[in-house]
From TrEMBL:
Native organism: Cryobacterium levicorallinum
Protein name: HD domain-containing protein
InterPro entries hit by this protein: HD/PDEase_dom, HD_domain
Domain HD: 49-155
Top-level taxonomic group: Bacteria
Length: 214
């Protein structure tokens, strides 16, 4: 699939039925407090936008599961020790830090608290929490929806906003963080569309941030 094809799909209008399915404003409002930790109010909306794009490219996915899971996936950071988020969650051993497992568990707790009251079934909640639980720490995806959430979660890192935030979290310059994106994060993307989006976004960010000279 070419990047041109992806863009054509991205800009296609959402059907009326799809729009009704994805009116998620009540859910956004329900977790507003959890959005104010660790840059979630920047990270999650951008990741959500990538999820929207990927769902258009891959209409066979259950788009509502993907959208709800990406919206809630990092809310658990609001319920861990905030003083340890950077020192442990983004330290040398960040992939295996206990606090990363903890934020996944807390994110599942939040999903179970807010979703039933908004009309979501127990089966739907389980599908969402199965994705949230392990989205950072589980080595493999267990469903296509899980794959789209994982790619969306990583794709935001390739944007200028993602680079600005994450390079600071990891104590790197934008240039060195962009290099890390190419070597470490790009290979983790699962879908062809996700990889093409990442390359396009990274090239745009590197040009804007003048990483060749800075």
């Amino acid at each position: 699939m070419t990047l041109q094809t992806i863009h054509e799909v991205d800009t296609s209008p959402i059907s009326q039925a799809d729009s009704l399915l994805t009116d998620l404003d009540p859910l956004w409002r329900a977790v507003e407090t959890e959005m104010r930790t660790r840059g979630n109010d920047i990270h999650i909306p951008i990741s959500f936008a990538f999820a929207e794009r990927l769902c258009r490219v891959y209409p066979e996915a259950d788009a509502l599961v993907v959208r709800v899971a990406i919206l809630l996936h990092d809310t658990g950071w609001a319920r861990v020790d905030e003083t340890k988020i950077i020192s442990e969650g983004f330290g040398a051993n960040w992939r295996h830090a206990d606090i990363r497992y903890e934020h996944e568990v807390k994110g599942c707790d939040i999903a179970r608290e807010v979703l039933p009251g908004l009309g979501y079934s127990a089966e739907f909640v389980t599908r969402v929490t199965d994705i949230i639980d392990g989205h950072d720490t589980r080595p493999v995806s267990h469903s296509f929806e899980d794959s789209l959430v994982r790619d969306s979660d990583r794709l935001w890192r390739f944007t200028t906003a993602g680079i600005a935030l994450a390079s600071g979290w990891f104590g790197q310059t934008p240039s060195s963080y962009c290099a890390r994106l190419r070597t470490d994060i790009l290979p983790e993307l699962i879908t062809a569309a996700g990889r093409e989006m990442a390359v396009s976004e990274l090239e745009r960010s590197e040009s804007l941030l003048r990483t060749a000279v800075l």
